[in-house]
Amino acid sequence: MRRAVKIGTALGAAAVVAALGGALAVRELRPATASADAPLARVPGPHGTYTPVSALQPQVPKGARIDRYTLTAEYRTLTIGGETLRAMTFNGTAPGPLLVAHQGDVVEVTVHNHLSAPLTVHWHGIPVPGAEDGVPGVTQNPIAPGGSYTYTFVAKEPGTYWYHSHDNSFEEVGLGLYGAIVVLPKHPLYPAQRDYTLVLHEWPNASTAQAMMESLSSGRSGFSPAGGMGGMGGMGGMGGMGGMGMMASSGGNTAGGSNSIQHVLPGPPLQQNGFAPTAEDFAALDEMAGMYGAFAVNQNADGNTVLPAKPGDLVRLRIVNSGNMTHLLTIVGAPFRVVALDGHDIANPGWLKGVLLPVGAAERYDIEFRVPASGAAYLVSADPDATARAELRAAIGEPGAWSAFQPVPAATLEREPWFDFTDYGRGRLPGEAVFRLHQAYQVRYGMKLTVGMSMNGMVYAINGRVFPNIPPIVVHEGDAVIVHIVNDSPYIHPMHLHGHDFQVLTRDGRPVKGSPIFLDTLDVFPGESYDIAFRADNQGLWMFHCHDLEHAAAGMDVMVQYAGVTDPYPMNEMSE
């Protein structure tokens, strides 16, 4: 039986504590002072120069092959999990069409907006040029209803990626504006006979979907299922700054602002015992399940997906999580190995059996296995939520594979260990450049993630501040940057950096032991801490935000700004 939708973001501080049964005390947090350098700063580049982000265009190689695609955003009525709802789609489906390119190709995607709401498209995980990132009010103007826009970039990095709207994305991604994009390598490290892409998604029920549509139609954003406003919306209260197109918040963390942090919820103690899941971890996994009416694999929430394969076939399964929740997945019936994370191959991955993969929001896992002689292997969920377990699954093998499936008891699945990516694989890939924890870094940034209360409800903060009142991380071309992340909250925060990959150096103070791990989205559980590093090698204005899109809409965002790069667009159009 499905539970009632969650009510947290629609309530004030006292009501939320009451709703939690008083289990979470709140402590005072002194609100930060408004700063003129948030969310962007006026910092000159080399020789005192300034460059608008719109000038950072792709360098298209002469004679390169061009892969052209068209995405048409349009309303469709879909039946998901037995319930009919009005959705937003690309080319009539959700997910939208799988886009497949080859490494080195030029990708050209023309987007037509047939919706009544504006949108943009972000190319999640692909290091596109600064002008092509798809963030409204930062890298482009939003695509207005009836308008079109063409994105162009070179597919330099092979791997599994995805695309989605970045305008009011809690609503627009939630209602269907997402899809996968695969860049095939020139020289596959792990070739397979069968290659499938599965996009996981959580769908609202029909009444919630209708309310989300009404929220978009009214020009609001940050919808919460209880009828409140979960976030800061399009930041319409922002005023001009210095002629640079940058805006400052009038209601961010200033005393008396409507989104001023009044209290902060305490997080659990910092984790010290490796990747053994805690009670707080399981509670955080299940925290959002009641928001959703169905859990889909591609567009199927019936739990009967079958992917054709024959015994002996080597299968590559590309798993893309386009939702807001973290899901626990595993393969039953065959040993498997994780050959890539977030599009990046892992050196010498080992074989696994009876291990759960915590696939966070916006993350991608590429796994490989051989179909057994019995005829099928099965992707199954070990989520705490029974509906998710019933619907997030797929059989890979012969037709009728589900008739032979022997379910694994939920209690057995829950006891299986979690995949530890910090001690997996061995060695490194040829030519792979890596960071060291104790090398020289030009930029060091501490990122403390907390959850607080404002007059409008819950807000999600970085270093005690709520976006847009968070000063940027300013970098110069070529800088080595290290970020220390601490999750001092009871919730999961999948932190995504636009335009760059980062290497994970430590978790909970312990150095990574196995193959170097490069990600663009890091799922940070309650009490966890990480050190990550990246090279500032892609000029632009880049968001670094939580990819639980409700959290992003409610403040958990910071900008990575290259010195001298300015925003020529009106930032009052900026939206998650």
Number of strands: 37
Instruction: Sum up the overall morphology in one term.
Output: globular
Average of pLDDT: 88
N-end to C-end Cα span: 32 Å
What is the rounded Rg? 22 Å
> Approximately how much beta-strand content do the residues carry?
35-45%
Structural class label: mainly beta
* Low-pLDDT residue intervals, each spanning 5 or more residues: 1-35, 222-256
Helix content: under 10%
By DSSP (H or I, 4+ residues per run), the number of helices equals 7
Structure in words:
Residues 75-186, 459-560 form the Plastocyanin-like domain. It comes from Alicyclobacillus sendaiensis PA2. This is Multicopper oxidase family protein. There is one protein chain. The longest helix has 12 residues, at 206-217. Mean pLDDT is 88; it is low at 1-35 and 222-256. The radius of gyration is 22 Å and the shape is globular. By secondary structure, it is mainly β. Strands 1, 14, 25, 26, 28, 30, 31, 32 and 34 form a nine-stranded mixed β-sheet that branches.
